[in-house]
Amino acid sequence: MGRLEGKVCVVTAAAQGMGRASVLAFAEEGAIVYASDINLEKLKEIEKPGSIFVSKLDVTDRAAIDKYVATLPNVDVLFNVAGIVITGSVLDCTDKEWDLTMNVNVKSMFHMIQTILPKMLEAGKGSIINMSSVASNRLGVYLRCVYQTSKAAVTGLTKSVAADYIKEGIRCNCIQPGTIDTPSLNARIASNAKMDPIESKKMFEARTPAKRFGTAEEVAKLAVYLASDESVYVTGGEHVIDGGWSLI
Ligand code: NAD
Questions:
Q1: Which ligand 1 atom minimizes the distance to the CA of 132?
Q2: Per the residue annotation, which of 34, 68, 147, 165 is the catalytic one?
Q3: Which residue has the least CA distance to atom 3 on ligand 1?
Q4: What is the mean pLDDT of the chain?
Q5: How far is the CA of 7 from the centre of ligand 1 (A)?
Q6: Sign of CA dihedral 240, 242, 247, 248
Q7: Is 147 noted as a catalytic residue in this protein?
Q8: Using CA positions, which residue lies closest to atom 22 of ligand 1?
Q9: Model-level ipTM above the cut of 0.95
Q10: Banded pLDDT at 18 (limits 50, 70, 90)
Q11: CA 98 to CA 243: how far, in whole Å?
Q12: Alpha-carbon distance 192 to 188, whole Å?
């Protein structure tokens, strides 16, 4: 029997990277997964009748979230993955970049939780997982001002939900990955005008004691644990998965 047998899991930003790997890992463990993303075409690659249901959903659109959640059955697990990276210092950051990052990275999670939590409360159980980062309350990373501000807020939201709903059987944890090999990371490396992509990759690897990037599948395994009843006594946690980066 799979570790998530019979559980209904909702995953945002699931077309690529850690969202996609988590959907596949959840389904592999017997869950019924409702996967969404703004990129429906790519998301359709992982659609699987009776197991993985895919939908287009922009998590910055509150009305669309309400409509989407209304179609869902009881939800056991919500994995809020959506997030974007805009680089730069506090002096570089524009109001537009600040608002966009906060909307995609934090407000989306607030809205997803606010719409799905009532279903969990009705069932008396649920596990919410939010994607934070070590670039957050944990580490001060060079030129990541608005990004790490948003990811620190994700940690705060996680602890707040954990504290408020533990008595009702709801758990809420966040994952703080280090540098993970995903399409957006590779795109950032390729588009860095100031550094050759090979040098840039070496620089990212050098800051990690494990001397390599993490994989989306490694993070998905942590998500399976937090989604499953194996972690039933675990809530409010900041689960670091970073090859030792935050140790230095
Ligand atoms: P990715 O960045 O490669 O893919 C992100 C997905 O999000 C894409 O499929 C995209 O279409 C979708 N998306 C973007 N805006 C959306 C929106 N408004 N609504 C719905 N979907 C939207 O994936 P990744 O690198 O695995 O990152 C996933 C999460 O992990 C993000 O929150 C990111 O900040 C966080 N994270 C990434 C790393 C890393 O090194 N890759 C490290 C720490 C944290």
A1: 44
A2: 147
A3: 184
A4: 97
A5: 24
A6: negative
A7: yes
A8: 13
A9: yes
A10: very high
A11: 29
A12: 6
